[in-house]
Amino acid sequence: MRLIESTYISLDGMVTGDAFWGAQQGFQGDAHNQHAAALLETADALLLGRQTYDVFATSWPERSGELADLINPLPKYVASRTLTEATWNTEVLQGDGVEAVAELKKSREGTLLKYGTGSFSRALVEAGLLDELRLWVHPFVAGSGESLLAGISPTQLALAAVTEVGNGVVVLTYAPKH
User: Fold this and answer.
1) By C-alpha distance, which of 125, 119, 108 is closest to 45?
2) Range of the domain at 170
3) Which InterPro entries does this one have (predicted)?
4) What are the helix (H) ranges across 15-149?
5) 40-86 per-position pLDDT tens digit
6) pTM for the full model?
7) What are the Cα distances from residue 75, in Å, to 72, 126, 169?
8) CATH number of the domain enclosing 65
9) Which of 10, 53, 64, 84 maximizes the CB count within 10 A of its CB?
10) How far, rounded to the nearest angstrom, does the alpha carbon of residue 140 sit from its chain's CA centroid?
11) How far is Cα 178 from Cα 175, in angstroms, rounded to an integer?
């Protein structure tokens, strides 16, 4: 399987924080949603960390519309050391999440799309498991929060594409530099 990480980020590199989630919502529009839908259409399954799963599993099943119609039926995997059962068409990856994802990549075909932020994303980058990193750069400064890639070992990526999705948002697509 190919693994694509798709993450919203502010100009100052934040992916969470008090100002982050409210601010980024103001930049979404038709082109943004079309790009998100096109990415979802390429996915054969979703990969989520525990915190992202908790948020998504309580909100997406109740939504309707194009994005919900694409995301809800997809098979999902959640990496968690504590979760034993899941809903929303989800399989729990027990044990070490990085090892479980490495095994998924070897044993299955297609594209695995990962949403979310945090330590699991950083661990996947460090392990060299990402085939693409898509950063949805939003034109605002969050001022505080968590940086997506802070604290990882130096890693070089090659710019593969730049896509404007409206309202000043660009999606920067990176691939591992070989």
Assistant:
1) 108
2) 2-176
3) DHFR-like_dom_sf, RibDG_C, Riboflavin_Biosynth_HTPR
4) 20-25, 30-42, 50-59, 66-71, 97-107, 119-126
5) 999 999 999 998 999 999 999 999 999 999 999 999 999 998 999 99
6) 0.93
7) 8, 25, 29
8) 3.40.430.10
9) 53
10) 20
11) 9
